[in-house]
Amino acid sequence: MQKLTLTRPDDWHLHLRDGAALKAVLPHTVHQFARAIIMPNLKPPVRSVADAAAYRDRILAAIPAGQRFEPLMTLYLTDNTSPEDILAAKASEFVKAVKYYPAGATTNSDLGVTDIRKCDRVFEAMQQVDIPLLLHGEVTDPEVDTFDREKVFIEQHLAPLKSRFPKLRVVLEHITTSDAVQFVLANDTIAATITPQHLLFNRNSLFKGGIRPHFYCLPILKREEHRQALLQAATSGNPKFFLGTDSAPHTRSSKETSCGCAGCYSALHAMALYAEAFESVDALEKLEAFASFHGPDFYQLPRNTDQITLTKTTWRIPDEVPFPESGLVPLGAGQELTWQMARY
Ligand code: DOR
Ligand code: ZN
pLDDT tens digits, residue range 222-245? Predict the structure, then answer.
């Protein structure tokens, strides 16, 4: 196949940041995707509908002239989020979900939830008005091995949550293990996003010839058997699995340091990365549904009607793209890809 034409996809998990960083990265997403679920972990986080409205306006103002893009907003759940905040979110029409970060789990999660049971009144309201809960599914207990934190979260927090709120619609974000795949398959009302890095790389990439900070994200890359399980899920055609890049830009200097930030930057070349992953298991024909159908169906939004085209062209991922302060290193910098989006 030399050309791949798909219904325009959406990104169901994206970090856009703010200010000059937002302006630097947004064009990459807009070039490929019609909509994206925008993560709320700004500093300070997006906690209210008013915060989300203001952030949405800043995103809309940063869209390159003549292009179209719809930011789908989320609220950042804290110990103090109230059922009234949920009703306001539902009434807003542009807030599409609520994001749960365990306090201390990842970038800008200090104000996240300290104990998931503290939010039961909020989950009750979300179940009632049918707003999806998006989970960063990792425990933060320092005693739990980093590579086991997703599995333990599922056992200790997600399974009980599902029992308490059987109708609450949940997206387990950026899944990284076969345990997560199994749990999603076994539970109606639970879906999952899958990132390009977790489909293309295993944990060896973190240590190839030395420590590789640009492969460090959370949840961290896992063993090859888990990557295989994720590839199988993504290419299965099951509507529970859909595209969410978790593209998370950090300056080069904040990653290449003694205590580097978590996050891989994939918005630049997301669709080419996913095409590469799907082609590796001879499943390119499954890419359109994963990228363009399953997400809008879960979020009860219309599918896009226009298209994008990728061509079979070998190109090298740049070492760096412009970004405030010290530049931004894309996922897989320097490596070759064989699919390419039409140029700007
Ligand atoms: O690697 C990550 N980066 N994981 C997250 O959960 C947050 C994200 C970020 O905001 O940088
Ligand atoms: Zn994320």
Answer: 999 999 999 999 999 999 999 999
